[in-house]
Amino acid sequence: MRGDYQQLVDEISATLGAPATLEDRDFGLIAFGVHDSDDDLAMDPVRTRSILQRRSTAAVRAWFEGFGIARAQAPLRIPPDPAAGVFMGRICLPVRHRGVVHGYVWLLDDGHLADLELGRPGAQTDPRLAQAMETTARIGALLAAEARSGAELGELLRALLVGPPAGRDEAEAALRDALRGTARGPLAVVAVTPWDTENPAEAGPLPNLSGLAAVCAIAGRPRAAGSGTAGASTGAPHAPRTSLAALVRLRSGASLDPAHATAEQLLRSPRAAGAEPEPRSGTADAGGRGPADGARSTEHGAGPAPSGPVAPSGGGAPSGAEHGARGTGRTARGAAGRGGGAVPAAPAHGVRGASAGVSDVRRELGELPAAWREALAAARAARADERFGPVVNWADVGPYRLLTGLPATDPDPAVRPLLELGHTELARTAEEFLDRAGQAGRTAQALGIHRQTLYYRLSRVEQLTGLDLDAGEDRLLLHMALKKARLARA
Q1: C-alpha of 333 from chain center
Q2: What is the pTM of this model?
Q3: CB-based contact 488:408 (threshold 8 Å)
Q4: Which CATH number belongs to the domain containing residue 8 in this structure?
Q5: What phi and psi values does residue 91 have, to the nearest 5 degrees?
Q6: Residue 298: per-residue pLDDT
Q7: Residue 293: inside a domain
Q8: Residue 445: per-residue pLDDT
Q9: Is residue 292 part of a domain?
Q10: Which domain covers residue 483, as residue numbers?
């Protein structure tokens, strides 16, 4: 089907005599036409970035949606901004099917399309554009059909992972028929949490990720406010957090690299809720923009944004900083205390953005419910402890393999006083001390404090909890309680 998209994009390029690019509604690249030009300035950095990284940022999406592209029923012009690195304007052809937008076709316009009539009221649409829009409608029908197929696979995957046990055999058989050869593995499950499904139109599958066999959103169970942490107010239960489950085909049972690549791409989706802001402004084939909070970022600093849509920042080629902001997706296993040196402490309070977990390799569909539990537990661990990075394997989360399986309960009474907000620094000190097997020198160095200061804080911990840090069982209780509280905050 990908070849069908490429052929249709080439048809549009030939019809209008302009390089065309097709992106899905999340601004993920699907296909792009040939750009035949000897002019180095003809293909601006924003299009280059879109092709090389295959996805733009949430800030880019927000900026272009500010032009009304998500609501547009007809083509729109997007003006150039050479000072911001957008050397050519764009014409956006919204890709719709039965009133629902499924993507966008972007045409680069170096001025030769200035006389192209876009269909203003009372004016006749240019025949070339009418033909291009007919092709765009065919693209919309293909994307809609792919979305329906993906949604059906997602429903089967959800039924298998978390559905009633009585219906899992039927779901497994139906999923096996739908996946055909893929069902024989090797497979892995990726969990991304949290995942935004507030807008039903945005909750469908993501068919444009290589290796992705099926995907579905899974809502967690609501928990009472204050459950799992001390000092939190009680009251109505929190709304259940939704996570994404992705079934990934592996090239071999010896490598989880395809699952990591899928997880990293999913974390760059606008639907990866709670993700940290990008360190620099983003760009896309459609163009780019500065931060969505109204500050226009440049290489030399930041200033107030002009009113209306904001053009992309910077005039040079796009930086790779955003692409690498989340790291490689591998765990920091060695640096986390298995033979490594001092490790910066994770925040005692506060939670990172969306994180992803990867299950162990599976060969049979019947093993996927267990794989989902592994992936979700690993994602929770990554969200709780930044030493793991944004993507972590179930096999690499160490004690969290046990802790994530424990029921959500209030903290142990002895440790509860230490978890109050007023004792954040003491809790962090105790956790660092226990993470380093009670080695005072390494702990003081990691915290950047004098050893006597460390001893004073540890004595305060003992006073608050009544625990003896020279006793192995007391240390075990405190360590488990602190890690479990970290999970609860996440």
Answers
A1: 22
A2: 0.62
A3: yes
A4: 3.30.450.40
A5: -115, 125
A6: 29
A7: no
A8: 93
A9: no
A10: 416-489
- Single residue among 403, 427, 447 that ends a domain in this structure: 403
Q: What pLDDT score does 221 carry?
A: 65
CA terminus-to-terminus distance, the chain: 39
Beta strands in 55-186 (DSSP E): 76-78, 89-97, 100-109
Counting the structural domains of the chain, the total is 3
List CB contacts of 45: < 8 A, sequence separation 6 or more.
85, 283, 315, 316, 317, 318
- Residue 397's contacts (CB-CB under 8 Å, 6 or more residues apart) are 331, 357, 377, 378, 381, 382, 388, 404
Q: Confirm whether 315 is domain-assigned.
A: no
The enclosing H or E element of 249 equals strand 242-249
Do 162 and 139 fall into the same domain? no
Same domain, 108 and 248: no
d(CA 43, CA 110): 10
Residue entry with tokens 């299009």: 47
Q: Which of 107, 122, 145 is the last residue of a domain?
A: 145
Query: Does residue 306 sit within a domain?
Result: no
What are residue 20's DSSP bridge partners?
107
Show the low-confidence residues of the chain (pLDDT under 50). 41, 200-205, 207, 224-238, 275-350
**Cβ atoms within 10 Å of 217's Cβ, excluding its own:** 18
448: Cβ contacts below 8 Å, ≥ 6 apart = none
At residue 368, what is the residue type?
L
Which residue in 218, 207, 153, 208 sits closest to 365, CA to CA?
Answer: 153
Can you tell me the distance from the alpha carbon of 313 to that of 283, in angstroms, rounded to the nearest whole number?
8
- How many other C-beta atoms lie within 10 A of the C-beta of residue 48? 16
- Four-residue CA torsion sign, 444, 449, 453, 459: negative
Q: What's the CATH code of the domain at 468?
A: 1.10.10.2840
H-state helical runs in 341-439: 368-384, 400-403, 424-435
| Same domain, residue pair 261 and 139 | no
Q: Which DSSP letter does residue 387 get?
A: G
Instruction: Give the per-residue pLDDT at 36.
Output: 58
Q: Are residues 273 and 386 in the same domain?
A: yes
The pLDDT value recorded for residue 11 is 93
Q: Which residues contact 132 (CB under 8 A, 6 or more apart)?
A: 12, 15, 16, 93, 105
User: Identity (one letter) of the amino acid at 381?
Assistant: A
Task: Specify the pLDDT at position 88.
Answer: 74
Q: Please, which residues bridge with residue 247 across strands?
A: 189, 214
- Tell me, what's the pLDDT at 258? 92
Same domain, 205 and 259: yes
265 and 353 co-located in one domain: yes
Query: Do 253 and 274 have their domain in common?
Result: yes
Predicted pLDDT of residue 477: 93
Dist CA 444 CA 387 (whole Å):
18
394 and 441 belong to one structural domain? no
Tokens of 137: 């409608």
What's the chain's length in residues?
490
pLDDT of the residue at 47: 56
